[in-house]
Amino acid sequence: MTAMVKAEGIHKSFGAVQVLKGIDLEVQTGEVFCLIGPSGSGKSTFLRCINHLEKINAGRLYVDGELVGYRQKGDKLYELKDSEVALKRRDIGMVFQRFNLFPHMTAAENVMEAPVQVKGVSRAQARERARELLEKVGLGDKAGNYPSQLSGGQQQRVAIARALAMEPKLMLFDEPTSALDPELVGDVLDVMRDLAESGMTMVVVTHEMGFAREVGDSLVFMDGGVVVESGNPRDVLTNPQEERTQSFLSKVL
Amino acid sequence: MTVDVNKTDGPADTPPAGPEAIKAIPVRHPGRYVSAAIALGLLGSIVYAFAQGNINWGAVPEYFFNDRVIEGLLNTLLLTVVSMLIGIVGGILLAVMRLSKNPVTSSIAWFYIWFFRGTPVLVQLFVWFNLGIVFTYINLGPIYKDYWSVFMTPLLTALLGLGLNEAAYMAEICRAGLLSVDEGQTEASHALGMSHAKTLRRIVIPQAMRVIVPPTGNEVINMLKTTSLVSAVGYMDLFKVAQDIGQRAGSVVEMFFLASAWYLILTSVFSVGQYYLERYYAKGSTRSLPPTPVQRFKAAVLPARRPKGVSA
Ligand SMILES: Nc1ncnc2c1ncn2[C@@H]1O[C@H](COP(=O)(O)OP(=O)(O)OP(=O)(O)O)[C@@H](O)[C@H]1O
Ligand SMILES: [Mg+2]
């Protein structure tokens, strides 16, 4: 089994503030990898480095064996052109805390947009695929609705369908359920569970410890820009070794 | 997507349930009658004054559809449309330049906006017209070469003067529009593998339009009126034609009334267009769009699917 994501000593600062202080981890192909940690610990920042929405300052980050954002020739690094970065992002789906659906497009149009614009798929084909994907996330009857006409949970499921439309090999989830009313969380988690069962490699930043325990294959606890503890979710969540993990879990569980 | 008009009628059809409906005597507002009477009186005396004045009202309808007037009208429209197009395209370009991370491009845009907003458009028109004093020839290599005075026709002067000036104003409107779009939209688009250009064209600009269209409508209406300035550089627009006819026929004021009437008609037509354009770009922003006046009219006049005895 190869690593889908491999991080070696990732550092990232915003100005003088160091947010990531040397992250090392590996996400195996086909696994569900959960990231937990207190607010401000750098979880979102790390996730955004994986698809190069943020540039790292030091370290090496590989997705599917290829360096993210750079090309290595000899011992020199060359920055990739925007178009090359965009090409690599096609293979990485991302789901945001605040959905970020395109409000001027219907659910179906949201799902169709990238395949048509980026991959050059015909509109008819893309529409057919969008219908299938919306069906899959349980929104077959909402294809014509604008995001403002959908509940938060429905919007997030459209966002997942939108990311899946590009047929990614890796999905990133940044707290996909934390902007949702409690009764809507379940629907989104069900969709994610199905996706995990289908063998998708997923990196999930979450506060849903139940989801991490049931669906997760690996779990990392981050705090202050470093990995504090990692391992099997059931072990880490029930029997944390580090004191910082223990105090964090005692607050959220 | 079509909007089901009848949905919005829902609450009006349901009679108030529960306790007895209130039938109270409304508060009287005698002040309103007094102020209305005063306003009507003033209006009446103004109308009376104009009717009494030495004005040959017959000249207005006589020349209303005169060939030269219509030609001037078309010239005014042409000027408005083309100048606005130059302004909009230039404005979007300047706004993108202004927001770019490259300090050179953003400074150039800043300087352009500073210069063109800071000088009167009439002065700019004269400068374009008279630039022949500085440049005797215009020489675009093998493509084109001529005297400045021949090259710079009144139409070109007018288009350049109005269009380039408008671009500076449109730039600020477009910039506000682009900034109004949530950053998450750009991020989501980039995360899907869309390029900068596609993100701008497909995701950001359509959403920015909701903020850009209303003030742009005002700009169009302003432009329509500002075109009257170009009579100063000899372009045969509506106002210039009206002036010429007025002087020759000895009905100067009458022709100004005629021009005003045409300007009013055109601005009214543009306002209607603006309403529908705003509606178009509002899609997705509200759960259901309110019916247009035409739809409302149809709903009120045609009693189809309406329960009896319900007044709108
Ligand atoms: N663009 C930015 N500019 C400056 N500082 C930033 C930026 N983005 C994030 N930060 C800072 O980096 C730190 C980590 O942020 P990050 O969003 O990665 O945290 P997080 O672990 O996702 O927290 P949360 O659980 O609240 O989402 C925070 O202190 C934040 O203020
Ligand atoms: Mg976060």
Automatic annotation (TrEMBL), chain A:
<feature type="domain" description="ABC transporter">
    <location>
        <begin position="5"/>
        <end position="249"/>
    </location>
</feature>
<dbReference type="GO" id="GO:0005524">
    <property type="term" value="F:ATP binding"/>
</dbReference>
<dbReference type="InterPro" id="IPR050086">
    <property type="entry name" value="MetN_ABC_transporter-like"/>
</dbReference>
<dbReference type="InterPro" id="IPR003593">
    <property type="entry name" value="AAA+_ATPase"/>
</dbReference>
<keyword id="KW-0547">Nucleotide-binding</keyword>
<keyword id="KW-1003">Cell membrane</keyword>
<protein>
    <submittedName>
        <fullName>Amino acid ABC transporter ATP-binding protein</fullName>
    </submittedName>
</protein>
<keyword id="KW-0067">ATP-binding</keyword>
<dbReference type="Pfam" id="PF00005">
    <property type="entry name" value="ABC_tran"/>
</dbReference>
<keyword id="KW-0813">Transport</keyword>
<dbReference type="InterPro" id="IPR030679">
    <property type="entry name" value="ABC_ATPase_HisP-typ"/>
</dbReference>
<dbReference type="InterPro" id="IPR027417">
    <property type="entry name" value="P-loop_NTPase"/>
</dbReference>
<keyword id="KW-0472">Membrane</keyword>
<dbReference type="InterPro" id="IPR003439">
    <property type="entry name" value="ABC_transporter-like_ATP-bd"/>
</dbReference>
<dbReference type="InterPro" id="IPR017871">
    <property type="entry name" value="ABC_transporter-like_CS"/>
</dbReference>
From TrEMBL, chain B:
<feature type="transmembrane region" description="Helical">
    <location>
        <begin position="147"/>
        <end position="165"/>
    </location>
</feature>
<feature type="transmembrane region" description="Helical">
    <location>
        <begin position="109"/>
        <end position="135"/>
    </location>
</feature>
<dbReference type="InterPro" id="IPR010065">
    <property type="entry name" value="AA_ABC_transptr_permease_3TM"/>
</dbReference>
<dbReference type="InterPro" id="IPR035906">
    <property type="entry name" value="MetI-like_sf"/>
</dbReference>
<feature type="transmembrane region" description="Helical">
    <location>
        <begin position="73"/>
        <end position="97"/>
    </location>
</feature>
<feature type="transmembrane region" description="Helical">
    <location>
        <begin position="255"/>
        <end position="277"/>
    </location>
</feature>
<keyword id="KW-0813">Transport</keyword>
<keyword id="KW-1003">Cell membrane</keyword>
<feature type="transmembrane region" description="Helical">
    <location>
        <begin position="33"/>
        <end position="53"/>
    </location>
</feature>
<protein>
    <recommendedName>
        <fullName>Histidine/lysine/arginine/ornithine transport system permease protein HisM</fullName>
    </recommendedName>
</protein>
<comment type="subunit">
    <text>The HisPMQJ complex is composed of two ATP-binding proteins (HisP), two transmembrane proteins (HisM and HisQ) and a solute-binding protein (HisJ). The HisPMQ-ArgT complex is composed of two ATP-binding proteins (HisP), two transmembrane proteins (HisM and HisQ) and a solute-binding protein (ArgT).</text>
</comment>
<keyword id="KW-1133">Transmembrane helix</keyword>
<dbReference type="InterPro" id="IPR051322">
    <property type="entry name" value="AA_ABC_Transporter_Permease"/>
</dbReference>
<feature type="domain" description="ABC transmembrane type-1">
    <location>
        <begin position="73"/>
        <end position="270"/>
    </location>
</feature>
<keyword id="KW-0812">Transmembrane</keyword>
<dbReference type="InterPro" id="IPR000515">
    <property type="entry name" value="MetI-like"/>
</dbReference>
<dbReference type="Pfam" id="PF00528">
    <property type="entry name" value="BPD_transp_1"/>
</dbReference>
<comment type="similarity">
    <text>Belongs to the binding-protein-dependent transport system permease family.</text>
</comment>
<keyword id="KW-0472">Membrane</keyword>
